[in-house]
Fold these 3 entries.
Entry 1:
Amino acid sequence: MKQYMSKAALAAGALMVFASAPWAEANAYGGSSCPTEDISNWFPHSQTPEPDNAGFDSSTICNFHEWSWQMFLWLTQDVDGEPRFLSFASPYELLGLETRGIMMPRMGKSNKAETFDEFLQAGTDGIFVDENGNAVYYSQYLDDTYVKFMEDNDLTNPDSARAFEATTSFPIGSLELKASWKIVEDGEDTDKFFTMKSSVYGLANKGGKIVIDTSDIRQVTLALVGFHIGGVVKGHPEMIWATFEQVENAPNVPAGFTPSTVISEDDYTFYKAGTPFSGCNINYGKSPELKLDEATQKLSPITQACRQYEFGNSAVNDPKLQKSVETNDLNVSDMNKAVMPRLAQEDDVWANYREVGAIWFRPTNALKPGMTLATDFDAEGNQLLIGSLKLSNATIETFTQVQSTMNNCFRCHNTEQVFPPSADLMPLPAKNINISHAFQNIYFWSQQMKNGDELLPAKD
Amino acid sequence: MSDTFFRVHPNINFARVGNSEEYYIAPETAAGDLVDKENGLFGGLPIKPDTENTPITSTDFRDASDNVKRQAARFRIYAYDSPQQDYPAADGGREVQIGDTVGGKKITDIVWTVHLANKKNNFYKITSANGEEEGINAYKGINPDTGKPNHPPVRDASFGEDLANTTRRSQLVIDAGPRAIRSAAGAGTVIPFDAKTPCSYADGSGKVQKVPDYPVSFPDDHFKMYQYDGAIDTLGELLIEKGTGRLIVAGAYGRASGIIQSDGKAPAMTDPIDNDYWFDDTSDGPVNAVVVFDDGSSQEVVGGWVVTTDPGYAPQTRNVVSTWDDMFNTWVEELGLIPSLYSGGSYQTGYQASFYGDILPVFHGAFLQRWNTSLPDKGINGHNYMAKISYQDNPKERIPNFKDLLRDPNEPNEDGTGVKMPLALGDATKSFLSLSPTQYFLMMQWYDGVSVEDARAIGGGEALDRDVLHNCLGGRYSPGIDLTFIVRDVNLYKQSWQGETGPFRVNQQPLDYTTATKDQPFLGVGYVPLQKAMVEPGDLCKFMSQPWHTDYNSCAVHEPDPNPRQNNTLYWSWPAQRPVQVHPASLCTYDSEAGVWNLGGQLFSVRGDGEGSANGTHTDYPQNEGRYQLYPDFVANWHKVGFIIQGTQISADKGDNYGADKFLEVASLFTSNGDVVQPWPTASIGKAGS
């Protein structure tokens, strides 16, 4: 993979004085403006270089957001008529499957997106229903570094995966991506969205649940509304987890809200004007109120999405975290202000997407097997997580933005042991590479394939 | 006469209130135990009256008028020929009834004496003066001001703060007095614990003696009362089981009443557990008996105890930590119950855990929680996975990192670890629940390969003692449902257990009814934790919520206390005993293709009537969901709450029944779907936009 030396990396060389301490307090908390590097070489978007993952400099919060934005631009760069990320492998491809729903062997490598089958949100199985009554769909992608690592280590073989060295992490450059897609209906204005023609499986009522109907492939136009990037850079085997959203998805919940607070008087893509907080982000997944009309493929009730934290942080935090939070949020805001107008100047549809935030470990090379990452602190009470500590994408983690047990990426992306979705499968011992849910899914799917079972739903 | 001696079993048994005259028999199998491998039936189900062990069905929870049937406690007499040295006893004993021969003599009668009282208002509050529920810690140490042992503040302090005060003992204690009943009197004999029925007891020879001067006391004798569903004028009744002569103790009706205040209104009911001036009709007391022989001789029986408490809304859901687990732990660690398991201050590494006795029931307890909670599929799958582990499996393969999964009760640092199991709340300033140290040790023994497959052999009487307590809440005594933290206090028990007495027996105060007089209260202060005073009628229930309704209502979901750093996630209090989110059978749909019933959605168990703000359970705050927002509303509506029962016990017009793989809500009288149930995790809101 072609590597570019970023100015951040060059700056890091000049700042070796900080090498013994992962963070220089002044840089970490100084609230310096962001970007600190000259980002002019990112533009035009068609020429954005790939971030220098191997030369990444961890010395400021800003560097992580620069990486996030640069990676977003690189991944969305047009390559042969479509954004680069669409050429990446799906987790299914590593197992040689067309899609999980129909267990069909792939007929050679294709750059065309498969039929999308993910419609349940991670963790709580919620269905995100848009204002038209359609389910929002999800898709996942893995870059070549990730795929090569899996192949080189025979990690699509469950026995090899189970025995894999617990302390070995994904290599620098590995990327795990997730996109959320809204079905475009006739007459909808999509000027501000990246859209593509694709197909999704229809939905059906079966076994008391709403499931994909593998006999019903529907040709649709999909609009990208959310985008997760998880990527390994030097010093961060835990991955930097960044997320982006289309700017008109949902309104931000103000600090000090009450249940009756009306979150916005304006309509958003996933929010009806005048909805109070008590009507936001309700997960009907376990409620008898959730209904699917199979004939029209419409779901109800509609989800009113509200973004709980504009930059992935609440206003009030543990005092130990407050300065890094303030710096982080300012840096994200500044990066958005720096990049989005440049894209707008190019009349680039990606100008309508913004970074919500990113989260990573404060210390470098700190990933270990068996980390629960249940709080933002390590066992000694020192700050472990940094950046956007309550980071959620309003379209991907709609229903778990507030809950402390699921309110950022690491709450679920950790290195604990993983129990299988059914009793006839073997569990996954605690490992560094468990940080990737794509790896976990492949591990369980590969066992199910051996058993001849239908593949079970994916995690994010 | 031989050396044969007799004991009442179960040692402690539980009646439960209901607003019906009818009753069913308390379960004699343990929830979470697979009792019928053929049809997959789990234990814990109550028993149909006048049957040996026929489990109830979904239609047995209510009478024809839709009133909640009471749960009655059934007691038997077991004969033992050898003094007990070990636990379990080498001599498993045998049940004896009228007509049986023991030592060459025929039993002609068994004369029972039961004394029920409720001392809730003449005791201390559950919450300490510092606002914390400290459990037994509230009774530790000496108050430097008084020089006496510490204790929480007194309930109903306006009556004075001296529990021994005559007025307090007379007016604040509900004392129905003793009642005797003869097995020989047969079925149909009913002896109520009301004011009209004379007090009586069996003397040492088995003769029934009247106690006309016993100072029976009910609230309306002393106060003008505000009543729900009538006056508290009885604590239940005694009956004799048809065909067996066993004793049946039925409790009262679930009533609450309050002393009308100077403004002419009912007293405030705003606290989840301590509400002054209120009474309820729960109770407890000793169950004694005298066996009478055909030669005119008689023999006293080692007595038991009966407790009347909340209804059993989910009898088949096992508590991961039960009352038994706490009691067993106390006896193992402090009273030398099983030296091969624990002696010299430490657990013995050679002791073999029993997979079916010690391990699988805990996993079953975990997997049953889903029916009374709203777990996401990942949690349900994880619990199902654990429940399917077999003895033949290699534990280290099935659970690669067991210690990372299970909260260690011996590590105080893990008290605040919300990611470990059990995922439920702790008590006495512990944030989260952990297994008892004995349970945890046995788990680790199994994990390390030091185990056997089968449960240990145990006699029928001791099995009853154990299984009844397995059906009761343990671990989180704040204060609890059935019994509370006092089960961890050795002073509650007869500690010299070897010989005739046996383990786990309540240290009952001998009561000389010949001294009773009309103008003086008969019962004293009684048992106080960590002190030596023996246990009187009413001394067990006095540690519970006043009235029980408020605690039941409030204990849906909470933040932990203390709340760990950064936490806003809500956890369940007592889901096995107090269902929060349920799957109503009425929402299930039949899949004719597959020939099975599918689950429908979930509703809150306590979900009220009416829509929106007209529904008394409605709230916009997740921390308050699944309960009435005003306590008196639950007192008025507790009888509408539905019951959770296995699908095999719910007949269906298609497919015979709903299937052994489901535990569904039936017989709810609520007419609303209530607020929307969302899967865990949910979070508390309202703290500055947290």
Note: Chain A touches chain B through 56 residues (CB under 8 Å).
Entry 2:
Amino acid sequence: MAWMLLLSLCASGQDASGAVYITDTTGFISSLPVNKEVLHSTIVGVGWANVLDTYLSPYNYKGTDIRIQRESQRMTTLWGGRVSNQVLIDVNAAFTKNHARNLKEYAGGIRYSQGWFYNFGKGNVVNPVERSRSRFNVAAGLAASAYLGGIYIDRNGNNPAQAKADLMIDVSAMATYDMVIARHHYLWRYQVSAPLLGIAFSPAYGQSYYEMFDLKHRDHNVCFGYIGNMPSMRHRLTLDIPIRRYTIRLGYVAQFNQSTFNHLKYHTYTHDFVLGFNKYLYRK
Amino acid sequence: MMKNILRLFVCCFVLLVFHACVKEDHYDNSKQGNYEALWRIMNEHYCFFDYKKEQLGVDWDEVHTRYASQVNEGMNNVQLFEVLCNMLAELQDGHVNLSAAFDFGRNWSFYEDYPENYNDSIAKLYLGHNYMIASGLKYVIFDDNIGYVRCETFEDGIGNGNVSSMLNVLSSCNGLIIDVRGNGGGQLTNAEKLASHFTNESILVGYVSHKTGKGRNDFSTPQAVYLDPATDGIRWQKPVVVLTNRAVYSAANDFVKCMKLCPNVTIMGDRTGGGSGMPFNSELPNGWTVRYSAVIFYDKDMQHTEFGIDPDVSLSLSGADILQKKDTYIEKARVFLSEK
């Protein structure tokens, strides 16, 4: 906790412009309508990745992962103002090698998701420090997400790369805990998401991209995805630390994306330690 | 009650997700493990087992038994490589290779066991020094007003603009020789792009079928493949001769398959080398790379061209012509086109 206290010494409770600012962690104008405040956060991270795609290789490739996430959250007026909205853009790139360390594989992609969460009790997961009457808040809901990415392996042949794409309905839940130390608020956030059902792209077991894109031959390339053949989970645990009128965000992002379509096995496991900042802005 | 249901749902969800881990298959980086991995990769992905059994009597299960006894942990990597390559050579497939840092395992009997029927030094005399090059296609006009195009590979990108420009230069010729001898293939799209300038209508040139699962007989329903005429640029309307030898392989074999169905085209020379399977790559636990035929390309009659395509007119390079620094193939083609 010592480092948290040290960081808190920098925290400012007061805005120079006047009394409308709250004096503690997030520095937001609490008198404004709750659905007008938007939490923006950006985090970058680095960690490690484990990639398997049996269309390319029967073995795991392991290496470094880098990740950027851009998130915005706000409360809406839906369901008596109990529903919050989250937009999350998640980009990652992994640089990996095989067991023998003689072949490289590059994997990456971008996921865009837009989710709606019901905030339970009197909670508010968007700005729980200033808007919630509870230290512990929980919300759960559904998100529509779209992913576009690919994997490239640096050897020749007619299967040097694999495209990844899906459109999914995700089930997601998040929780926040407002930890107060020396009158300063440190906000823990945890979110877990998992694809529930949707559609995903996959070549057939031994189908070439030449057949798909040059000859326009299709063979079960749009697959129905559900938790049974896409048993995936995405976790994010962060800690918001207030420093003056800003808040830095530290955390850990773990993603376990998996699928088995057309007898092809795929997984990308990533663990990233992230650092970023967040800020509340007023939306007119 | 609702809370309990919710808890139960969450528990089931988490259990399902964590029980459903999608993992790599167990691998063993021992000599025996690499041998088994190679046999299994081929067993699950190779597309010509039935055909090779019919043509060569290759029984892949029997091959496993026979070669497994030759692998032991005391052997070095070079010895293991040799055993693995010998096992793969049973398939007599030029698209089946094993690559290590110190060697490239192959079976090139499709052309090494036959007369080459091509003399590079003599063929160069026909091109001279003032030939033109359009994206790898070397071409010249002979004195008898026959155009000659030397196509050594389909690795280089070929665009409609390249082909049309070349055909425009050659447009005054009475006929055209396309010499693909020694062309070991490249990109199918390049081969088809070139062939598309020699037809005015869409032609059924074959069928394609890929593996749909690990079983040796798991194949997709063959789907028709058409050669569509080039929509941009020039389409050649005069007689064409395509020169072939045993080293015409893979995409070049496909080119010959397409050209044989085009009007005004005569295939002259030796049977092609074949190679009708589209190769994919995989790897062994020790990092060696294996290439194998994964997708079958049939001809229009649903017949394999894995072991080559017969010419319309058979030719052999004559020893007497070689002594006179003449290429029998080119000379015969010139006479053939002049008489058309």
Note: The domain at 120-276+295-338 of chain B is CATH 3.90.226.10 (2-enoyl-CoA Hydratase; Chain A, domain 1).
Entry 3:
Amino acid sequence: MPRTLQLLAALFAVVWTAFPTDSQKAPSPEKETGSGKETSLSEDARIHHFLNRFTLGATPALAAEVKKKGMRAWLVEQLKGDREEKKALIDAIALRPALSLTSAEIAEKYAVRVGPDATVKERREARRMLNEPPRQMLDGVLLHAVLSENQVHEVAADFFRNHFAVSIEKGPVALLSVDWEREVIRGHSLGAFPDMLAATAHHPAMLFFLDNHLSCRPATESEIKEIERRLRNNPERVEAVRQRGLNENYARELMELHTLGVDNGYTQDDVIELAKLLTGWTIAPKEAKKRQLEFVFVPLFHCAGDKVLLGTKIAANAEDPQQEGEQALKLLAVHDGTANFLAFKLCRWLVSDDPPDALVKRIAKVFKDKKGDIASVLLAIFDSPEFFDQANYQAKYKRPFEFVVSALRATGAELVDLSQLHRSLVEMNEAVYRCADPTGYYDQAEAWQDPGAMSVRWKFAHDLARGRIGGVRVPDLMADLPEDDVPSWKDILARKLLCTPLSDTTSKALDKLIKSHSDDNAREQKRDLVPLLVAGVLGSPEFQKQ
Amino acid sequence: MKNSSRRSFLRALAIGSSVMAMPNMLLRLSAQEAKGEGEAKPAGPALVVLYLRGGADALNIVVPYADPRYAKLRPTIAIPAEGENALLKLDDRFGLHPALKSLQPWYAKKRLAPIVCVGSHHSTRSHFDAQDFMEYAAPGDRTIRNGWLNRYLQASRGEDAKLRGVAMQGLLPRALRGDYSVLAVPDRKVTQDGELLELFEDLYEDEPGMEKRDDEVREKGKATVETLKEYRGILARGIGKRATFPDSAPGAQLKDVAQLLRANVGLQVACIDVKGWDDHVNEGGATGAMATRLKSLADSMAAFAEDIGDRIDNTLVMVMTEFGRTCRENGNEGTDHGHGGFMFLLGGGVQGGKVHGEWKGLEDGALYQKRDLPVHTDFRDVFAQVLQSHMQFKAPESYFHGFSPAGVPALFKA
């Protein structure tokens, strides 16, 4: 009993609940197959397409490298995710020491408790410290995305960060997010899906974000009386304990968002059964009065009895009830519905907003045959004829994150302070790790094309080109431009920034711009014309697509 | 082959999805303008909602200074009843935070009505849930995806729907999301640079040889340019004397709303988010962080009311927040998430000069869970009363999804 009380009392009194879920739809069962027609893309266009989808931004250097090595060989090497990083990234990461710490070390170092007598200054400092780990984590996400040599790993991490979305806006998730990003997301996104699923389910960030830490069997009357007696000075906490019971939030999202997909062969009864299987999977401070929360299994919280999940009986395991939940996770991880749903989402991410059923079916089979090996699935998508189908070329709209990262990669920007970049993503409604909905951010064009967002992109492009984004240094873009041949500038910039020729409309618009600046002197051209040309390329319709 | 069900599903979810109908909306708008200003119809009622995000500390906004418990609960952040920076007394029970000075004359003119202990009976202390529940006006029901004001626009739509709803920000607040098309104002900073706007107009011209429907990006870009230009046009049509708005986000946004009202384009509902009210730390009292925000809010509201002149008689400004905060201050000179909140109603036919809502004091027994202001007035009763008395709209039985509002007696003049 004392152990229960200790744990109950330690748990949070505030009941957070996650958003309703607007989930991605599972593939419809019957749909026309993809065209499968011969691709008519040129080799350069194929490389451009490949880099658009399998990296977070094409650059001329990368295009040359891939051309030399061959796309498939390059991809196979990338799928190992172990290419040595450049110094710029290593140095930038080294400036953010929290990134290499465990959650325990972070709690120890950054979550400093201040006494009741602390001055305002001390409190402010304590708060600043508390914000450091998530801030550094967010910097780490952008730094890797822009600078990493392992770009395929970055694409996969971007996908799974949204697939298993948690938000640092929700209580202790902020402090736990460093470990989550490093170990769960980066650690598994080219690995085996069942391992990744297990890692998410055992992570305190996920258990808190989706409220599973609150889920338990209802307390008995005698337990409540005892708690009331012991906690009589703390009516809130007694109330919190009294209100505890089964919380279905995580169980539902685990099936709807993480594995099977919405309405994909499970019922409300399955949700309840899964919630029961996962009772007792909660979080607690490692030591009394410490702020580090870790996963614990509390047998006393667990619902006894046999359960049936998706038609499979999971027998009560009185000796080690945690194993019931482990069994459920294994069942979900290799379920046909999971293979279909993950295949669908990955094809949508990499091929088209509306991926052909035949492709999804084939990829689902690979997912199943390879036991959820993500690298094999990515390679199979590349190998499929639909990938290079002309219809899919430039057919996806970049999400704000993809737009910002690709613009930074294209300009070769040096990232000294990333706070303004994070703010730009907030303005574009895709703040990293701040999606309140457990669905993660949408990948499909329709979610991002409202006019508000479009004009923010244009402003970002122009600010970037003019060096007006604080903390971001753009190299001198004049360097490659021959002073005596102004009309050639647009094509030089296009090759550098876009890695593909300009559309006729863009070309015409930039010609007009160059003409209107033809009377400028060299200094004015550098100051006004070049930033406008760069903004024009980065803000052009073709740069919004991938 | 398009999967139409998925597409419409996504469309319904998409952020700012409602903006998709915007070019049509602008066409309607232009058509209306083309009719000429001579035959302008008398302007109908308008509602401007300011949502204080983060849970504003109601107890330091409408201050129960006469309650001896008040000062005791808040040793460092209480607003003094007398002396320097004293609160602005409204009656023998309540006073306004001193930073709200510019609203005081409106209270004296009986045009401002504060409501105390108003909010949701739902027990959540989550910002997200509380805001959701309030803006969808359906506490606890996560299946409702049409905001309460979107439902109004939908239910009251006439044949010639014009620019009826607008969010003065890039992202629609949930109150305005839903089936009815509402304009979310794009980033206007781009319009300040004429050359840049012209460049993007050129860039998003039709590409020769490309079928229009194959190039949604171009269509969206074009719509953006058009919106920016149209919107700039409306805002440029300044008429008469303008009040001085404070140099703050709500100031600039309310200035634009005032301009839209002056332009007489049929505006009925405008929403503005005012961010930053989650004062867990260093909230301040009569001065400090929250006081600065309150001053910006009050000065913006007062400037707006002055700016639109007689239109204030049928324009109602509502200030609301998802919940109030703990009555006791915490150990960080701030307050934590609470329960009952407050509202301000300014203008229209509101029965001002009086503090509305039941008040039972600050003794533990009168508080919610012995810590927060209780809820004596359900926010939906206020919403229903505003729709009925101000917008002249009797909400149908199903409007509040199972809740039958009793309204708030005497909130509006008979």
Note: Strands of chain A lie at 281-285, 293-297, 307-309, 312-314, 414-415, 472-473.
